[in-house]
Structure formats: C-alpha cells, structure tokens
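Subject: sequence -> structure tokens, single chain

Hey, anyone have a minute? Need the predicted structure for the following. Not urgent.
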Amino acid sequence: MQKYNEYKDSGILWVGKVPSHWKVKRVKHNFSLKNEKSYETNPTILSLTQKGIKVRDISNNHGQIATTYEGYNKVNKGDIVLNPMDLLTGFVDSSPYDGVISPAYSILKPNTQVNNDYYNRLIQVLYFNEYLFGLGEGVSQEFRWTLKNEKLLNLEILEPPIEEQSLISSFIDKKTSEIDLLISDKEKQIDLLKEFQQSIINELVTKGFHSDEKMKERGIKSVGQELWKSIQMRYASEFIQTGPFGSQLHSYEYIQNGIPVINPVNIRNGEIAENLESTISEKKANELNRHRMKKGDIIFGRRGEIGRAALISECEEGWICGTGCLLIRPKKGLFESEFLKFVLSSSYVKQQLLMNSVGSTMDNLNCSILASLRILLPPLTVQKEIAEYLNNVSNQVFMLIESIKSEIQKLIEYRQSLIYEAVTGKNDVREYKKVMS
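Reply:
Had a minute. Here:
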C-alpha cells in the first residue's frame, strides 16, 4: 500500500515512526476510567473473551456464577473494556452491548471526540505484541501480574485526525472481514476432513470392507458382518481402570522433567502428545505402579470430549494414566490394540457412551459405563487389515489438516500485521476512501 509523504519519530518504542501530522497523546487525554456501579435487578451480564465481549448466559450455570450482580460496573455500547489482570492471554474489546461486567475489568469511556473502534484496535495491538505485559506489576509475572490504573491512563497512544480514525477503522473492518471469511472457509475444510475420517472409521469398524454383505442384529442396530461377533468391553479387556484419584496424586507432587502423567488434553489424533509440565518423580510413579501404562494399552479420555483414544507405544511405556482417563488393556489374541483404538474413536461408540455418560456440565465416563459398552469383534486378520488401512487414512487426513492449520496461522499473522500497520500509520489508508466513494 501507499505510504504517507512525511513521517516523524513518535517516541513510542513499539510504534516507531508515524505520519508527521499525527499527534502523540496519553490515554487520559482522550479517555477516562469509568466506574459506574449497577444496581439493576436483572442486568445483562457481559463477559470479555478472546473473541470479544459476549452476553453471558447464566441460566446454564456454566463457569463462575456470582450470588449477586449488584455493584458490577455499567457498560454502554462503545465503551472499551480490557482485562488488566491477564496481560498475556487477556483481551480488549469495544462493547456492542449495554450491560454490566465484573469490577475486575477496566472500562475506558471517551472524554473527547474519538473513533472508539480505532482506539479499540490500537489497544488490541498492545495485547497482541505483549507490550502491556512489560508494564505490569505484582508478586511475580506468573501471579497477580496486573496493569495498574495509573499506568493505563499514562500510556502513550496515537491520535490521527478524527476523519482518518474513521477511515482506518472502516478499512480494518473491511479487510479483516475478508480475512475472517478465508479463515472460516479453511476451518470448514478441516471439519469436512474430520467428518470424512470419522465416516471411514465408522464404516470399517462396523461393516468392514464389504458393507453390502448380510448384516445381523447384535443389539446395537444392524451392523457387522456375518462372521463378526458382538461383545461387551468387559470381555474384550484384561482390565479397565480409572487413573489415580485426587487423594492419590496432589498438585504439589508434580515436578519438572519427571515421569509424564497423561490426561485427555494429551490425546491428539490417536496418539500421545507429551506434556512435560505434568510429570512426577520416579518414587511417586512407583507408588502409582498399577496406573503405569504398557505398550499395546489404550488410554481413553473419560472427561470432556468423548471418543479421545490413543494407543500406547514403546515410547510411552511406564508413563502414568492420569485421573481424567481410563486405562484399557485389550485381551491378547482377541483384539488388535490398533483396531480397538479406532473402534473406541468411532461415532457409533461415541453415541452409546454419550447416552450413558454422567455429569451435568461435562460428559464423564466411569469403568462401569465403558465395561458395558457393546462393540463388534471381527476375526484378527480382518482387524489388522482395517487398522492398517485406517492408519494410512488418518495419517493423510492429519497431514492435510496440519497444512490447512498452517495456512490459517499465516492468515492470522497477516491479519494482525495489517491492523498494526493501519493503526500506527505505516500505510496510508486515505486511498481507501477514494475506492469506496
């Protein structure tokens, strides 16, 4: 894009040079901190998320629910709300709603004529490049690291002419909408690939390679070939057990670079993603010896998203099955572990488990539910063929998804770069007005 004719040094480290006719101000020159308490009986509760300000549904009891919302701060449309307590993963947004929000958040209200959307984007850049983190104060950078009001109000910001603020805001809205549409299309591609993968898994673990052959009733709809048997998981496994309970493993017992403890978050694409942050000492692992995993075991997530299963390889042997998982040891000579992994990841198994899972806010499985699960048992030779085929399909889908994710990340980075260059005057968007007129 075209540059401005003349630039000057802004004196702001993260900005550098700005158009010569732009001004440098402090937040307090254009905004004041709003601290208006609400005492409404049934206010609209707002929440600041990574995707902006949302109206919070408190009827489902999800998350932290306050006993009363009296004393919460009023928010009006256009107010800029930011999270001063989380300067790395927190966010800022211009509210599209009237409502109330926790007094823990900072609310900026214009005290002069400005374009709120422009300044919202400008402050968002401060979060993206972690500039605000360097201004934090507290006990430590990992604990209670907060942006104090005084530093926020004295923060140096830019002031383009009001007309340019509006042009920059319109330009960013138009361009980011185009980028967001591209990202959305790529996310849909990922969803389609996952659906394709799931349909192939479901087809093969219930019908095999010859789905047109005669089906017979096995108590779980008419699925499975004539030679296949229906069996409960309790008879397919040497044992099924839950990971250690909280009383057996406390948070203070985790160390660095010890024996990994595997939970659902570590199960990705049928494999274990190592997490060295959740590890324990060899001594503690020996105390939890019954939860040690062996090659050929299957670890199955029992909390949250149903259907996360991974096969334990030689690399993970000796690691610990975490509290959020179930450990399954398939019976040798009856099931191929690789095949059983795909069975447990299939949609027909997920549907059975979801109907029997417990928990009001999060699906939760136990040994009894999984042991009662009915699955299909084909001959071992068929299991091996299916597992090999599904491994190839899964690997291809995984590589395609990773490639699309890389493209999405590049679009996100381009989006952030475009916003930064627009709000700091690196590009002259005044030409945009001519295009639009």
